[in-house]
Amino acid sequence: MVKSNIQNQKKIKNNPFKKIIFLFGPTSVGKTNLLSKLDSNKYSVINADSIQVYKGLDIGSAKVSKDITAKIEHYLIDILDPREQFSVAKFIEEADKAVVEIVSKGKIPIISGGTAFYYKHFLYGLSQAPPSDPIVRKRVETLINENSLSYAYNLLKEVDLITYNRINENDKYRISRALEVKYTSGKPLSSFDLPDTYRYDMDPLVIGLYRDKEEMDRRLKLRFDIMMEQGLLDEIRDLKKNGASLDWPGIQGIGYKEFFLAMRTGELPISQIGNLIVHNSKKYAKRQYTFFKSFDKVNWICAKEENKIIDLIETYIK
After folding, report:
1. Which of 64, 96, 181, 227 has the greatest number of beta carbons closer than 10 A?
2. How far is CA 204 from the centre of its chain?
3. Would the pTM count as exceeding 0.85?
C-alpha cells in the first residue's frame, strides 16, 4: 500500500512530499539541540545519520537521547543490527515510508543528520549506474581479501578520484560498489549523473548549519570527552564481547573504528585513540561542509541563531 502511494505521488493533489525540511550540518554543529526545541505537535524527525540507524551504537554515534525522542518523534533510529549494511537505496525506501506516515499524522517531516549522500539521493534519486553483478562483486571481494581494504581504496583513487574523495577509507561497501561499477561498465561511478530535478515535485526548505572552525574544533574535542564520561569504553567492551569487528558496517563509524583498529594492531593509550577520533572527526566535518556546499538553494545559518532558524521553519510551513 505504501509503495503504491509513493509511486503515484505526482498524481495526488495533496502530495506528502511537497513540504519537507532538510536540516543538515557537520558532526557536532548542534542539530540535535535545535530539534529538541521544535514543536512536537508540528514536526517529526527522520534520522539521516548512517551510524545512528544501528542498535547498540549509542554513545560513539552521539545518538539522540531517549529524552529527546520522547519529546519529538524520530524515525530510522535503532532499526538495524550493526552487522547489516544500510545502503542509500534502503535509506530512500525507509525515509519515503516515514514521510508518508508523518504527513498522515498532520505533521511536517524534518530530515536531519550528517550523512550527505542520504540528503542528495533523497532529493534527486539514485544515479543510473549499472546494477550489481554477482560475478564482478565476487571479483572485488577476492581482491580485497587477498590484498586489503586499503589497497582497494588506493586502487579506487587511480580509477575514480571523485568518488575516492567522497568515500571514507574504511567504507568497505561503497569502495567495493565503486570498483564494481568501474569493472562492470568501464566507467567511474562518478560519471553516472543523478537526475537533475527533485523527486515527487518536492519544494523543500533546506537549512545548513555552520559554526566557525575554532568553535567546531572545541566542540569536537568536548564531544569526545562527554562520550568518555557517558561510558564509551563500556560500550566498546560490550560490542567486542558480542563479536563486533571491523567487518561490521556499523563499526565503520568514527568513534568505533579507531578503537577496533587499535585492538587489531595492538594496544594504544586511550589518550591517543581519543586524539585520533577528534582528528578524524575534524577531517570528516571538513568533507561534510564541502559536500553540503555543493547543494542548491541552501539557507546557511549559524547554529547559534536558533530563533532565526525556527522563524524560518515556521514561515515555511504556513
Report:
1. 181
2. 19
3. no
Q: Which CATH number applies to 134-191: 3.30.2130.10, 1.10.20.140, 3.40.190.10, 3.20.20.150?
A: 1.10.20.140
Give the cell for residue 5: 502511494
Does 3.40.50.300 match the CATH number of domain 2-126+202-317? yes
Interval 99-147: pLDDT, tens: 999 999 999 999 999 888 898 889 988 877 887 888 998 999 999 989 9
pLDDT, tens digit (0-9, with 9 covering 90-100), for 24-77? 988 889 999 999 999 999 999 999 999 999 999 999 999 999 899 999 999 999
**Domain coordinates in residue numbering, the chain:** 2-126+202-317, 134-191
Angle, helices 116-124/270-292, rounded to nearest 10 degrees: 30
State the number of CA atoms in the 13 A half-sphere of 94 facing the CB: 21
